[in-house]
Amino acid sequence: MNPPESIPVGLLGATGMVGQQFVRQLDGHPWFRLAWLGASDRSAGQSYGEATHWVQDLRMPEVVGGMVVRACAPAADCPRLVFSAMHASVAGPIEEAFARAGHVVLSNARNHRMDDDVPLIVPEVNPGHLVLIGRQRGGRGWPGAIVTNPNCSTITLALALAPLRGFGIRRVVVSTLQAVSGAGYPGLAAVDVLGNAIPFIGGEEEKLATETLKVLGGVRADEDGVEPHGAVVSAHCNRVATVDGHLLCASVELGARPSPAEVRTALGAFRGRPQELGLPTAPDWPVTVLQDPDRPQPRRDAMAGGGMTVSVGRIRECPILGIKFAALGHNTIRGAAGASVLNAELLLAEGWLG
Ligand code: NAP
Hints:
The protein is about 30% helix and about 25% strand. It is built from 12 helices and 14 strands. It starts with 6 loop residues before the first strand and ends in a 5-residue tail after the last helix. The model has no long low-confidence stretch (mean pLDDT about 95). The protein binds NADP nicotinamide-adenine-dinucleotide phosphate. NADP nicotinamide-adenine-dinucleotide phosphate (NAP) binds next to α1, α4 and α12.
């Protein structure tokens, strides 16, 4: 498609861990220009540079550092398209207020992900779920809309499973080793996580089990919601002292019993709608198949495709479920801010933004 002129966008929860990654992802974006920043009342009124404890490994863009942070309430000068990286304890009603006021909200928060009329999108996997926007607008009477992306580990799992749908996914057992950036800032105390692996992340196992099936499911014939995929997912989620990479070890039962070589081929050949459309932040290949038996370059693998590619390796036979592999995704890029920006590009390219 022809690149549109620079479109102003807003960002709710701009000061947090994911908000900062949004600032990075939108810096120099060919279509979107960050024009409005929101955070809590604690930050409102200060410049972004004053309000934010910047933890990114690149410098804060100067122009953003000087912008004034606003309270997260709809305002006349707030652009129509807004990204949301607000804390889940507050995101639900605030996102609704923005959609009611005519904004299209692209949310990272969990609050509305499982609502029947809210699309939960991984653009390569289920772009067709965007039709739910019609039901949402009709049912709720909103001129705007809420569109969500899944939880960070779910996105990595969904991208690794989607290419295998043709083999008939039946059962999945997945164990995660999740980075500390997933806990926000300041997140976990160093004394809790250093030299430790914490075998519990509140609500994460349920999200992996339910969100994955919604993403892999199909829209019902009446476009009234999504019929979840019929597979069963059992998850174990663990927090470990890495910064950004979420590693998932999965065993999968596939009805067609493909060989590891066939699975490797299916994963390596996978491309989706963003690649067809040539969206600006779509990686050429959403899944990279690694041959290395170990992970000599974990940072390189997590940053493949600008952090938007999921790296899958160690594809081999599982004596119990048939196939097993390891998958690595970048937590705050493909798992959060980058996912939302790609959703926005898809919405624009598919004509959902008018
Ligand atoms: P975070 O670092 O704790 O940041 C939370 C943000 O919410 C801050 O900008 C904060 O502003 C703002 N906020 C807090 N209370 C508010 C209020 N009453 N009104 C408006 N804004 C308020 O959290 P995070 O890790 O960035 O996560 C943000 C969202 O993304 C969460 O819903 C999380 O579940 C989801 N998510 C996170 C990840 C990840 O990797 N971290 C991945 C996927 C999804 P102040 O600075 O002013 O307090």
